[in-house]
Amino acid sequence: MDRPFTQRKIRQLIKSVTLLRHNCLAFESKHAAEVAAVAAGHRRSARNLLHYLALRQHDIRGLQEDLSSLGLSSLGRLEAHTLATMNAVLKTLHQLIDQPPPEIGKDEAPVDFVSGPKLLREHTERLLGPTPVKQVVRVMVTMPTEAAHDPNLVRDLLCAGMNIMRINCAHDGPETWAAMVANLRAAEQVLGKSCRVIADLSGPKLRTGGIAPLDRVVKFKPRRACDGTVLTPVRIWLTPADAPAKAPDCAAGQLLIRGDLLAHAQPGCTVEIEEYRGRKRYLTIPENVDGSCCVESDRTLYVGESATVTLWDKEGRHVAQGRVGSVPPAVEPLLLRCGESLILTRWAEPGYPAQLDPDGQILEPARISCSLEAAFKSVKCGEQVWMDDGKIGGVVRTVSENEIAIEITYAQPTGSKLRAKKGINLPDTALNIPAMSHKDFSDLDAVFPLIDMVALSFVHRPEDIYALESRLDDLDGQHLGVVIKIENRAAFERLPELLLAALRSPPVGVMVARGDLAVEVGFDRLAEVQEQILWLCEAAHVPVIWATQVLEELAKTGRPSRSEVTDAAMSGRAECVMLNKGPFIVDATTFLVGVIGTMDDHQSKKSSMLRRLHVSKMDQDCR
Questions:
Q1: What is the pTM of this model?
Q2: Helix or strand or coil: residue 386?
Q3: Measured between alpha carbons, how far is 588 from 581 in angstroms, rounded to an integer?
């Protein structure tokens, strides 16, 4: 490339970058009122966010390639210091053609390459606590109910690397939450560690209602291999109905037996159970413990309430007879297929499956209630409906005051099962409802003395944040952090407004609730959307919590999948990663701490960190 052409190209680049810089300053000026409303210590962050938003209103990919060809910054990692990066590029471009750089005001760039990332670290520490010793990224763990009465579980989690305890207010209650935190404080004293507590308000989430029970039947099923071979017989605890004993952990369930049959039971005796389907099952008693005993079956049993139970001795002689006591009602999920209809009802009446004629034709579609009455005032024909985390999808066909008729357009080829209390997402619907319900206000009052921050669910607009902050003011809780959960399309599309609103009363953070968000924006867009949330929050110097299904397979089964290990590594680009509960949650916490601790050496936000690689030594022994 000859010099005249190089100079001409550089002048064009100067013109392009100067115009972008002007647009950034103009956009800040346009939103001066919003910046003035932000807390004084966060106005630099608000200004930087506006500069970044102004830049991202343009497609600058061609400009980036040209800047990279000159060995300059491509403006691809300027989130935390937008204007400072542009000013530095302009200065270098002018030097390349021996021209003095433009005059830049002292306070024009609110942050620079040092102060921008520093603000993010400071805001993160204020909200999420001190930086952990082993890794930069914090680990948040959702508490199971067991954490209230098992102090060892909480201690083990804290020892494994938990930095934040999450109380999910959709479950349990104030007494249980207080016991969880009491166990945490005791563990902190023993281990000499500190851990913050967040209360996640449940919000007015749409869910399916109950389903009418078919009958009072309990099912016992042995564990089988894929070819049907029994791997583990099912163990059933038989115990007197009038004085039931606690079932051992190995039992899959229990049957309450009326009468004195169990008083005569001895090892080697046979129990004959009249099954719900009319067949009889014969089970041998291997042991007898204080009038209760465990029996095993390598076949599936369906046992109904009041079923006859007969005891036979080793010689086959009749000993005693009794009946099965109270059995919980059996509830079958609704089976929905593509092309069929589902009626959502306003009233909290039990749902039921489709009614069929003798030829199997549908006489009346399946019905189930919806937990949120406001949906019936907002939903319109043609809008999408997704249920059970996107497993079932449909389109609204008709809407009346009390019913919404949905045509099922997405389900498994053989049909998908819809159960009670499953989430409903309406990504196309503008729901005009507040984020905090009466339950949320009550839960916040109860949990307020225990926590360091509160997560706000179902956020749609800045007014939702103001309502929470007003309640915190009433409780004298201005010191508590606020975490905005981005779990619906409206929250994502209004994220800049939500950030500016939350920055009025810091500390503030953002949780990417990827489960509901994926359903709302579409699974094909989730990767792009979560990246955009990370970029905008870094520009506002607001910490991000990466949530939903992180190492879920490991937490549930004890073994991670390959894809979720990669996801866990990617989560290190946020400031905090959230794990959900599961039987192997301590193992999952230990594993996650190791993964993100390793990735800290390789990745910082969008930037690759080039530490020394052992694999780069080509002459090493490959044994």
A1: 0.82
A2: strand
A3: 10
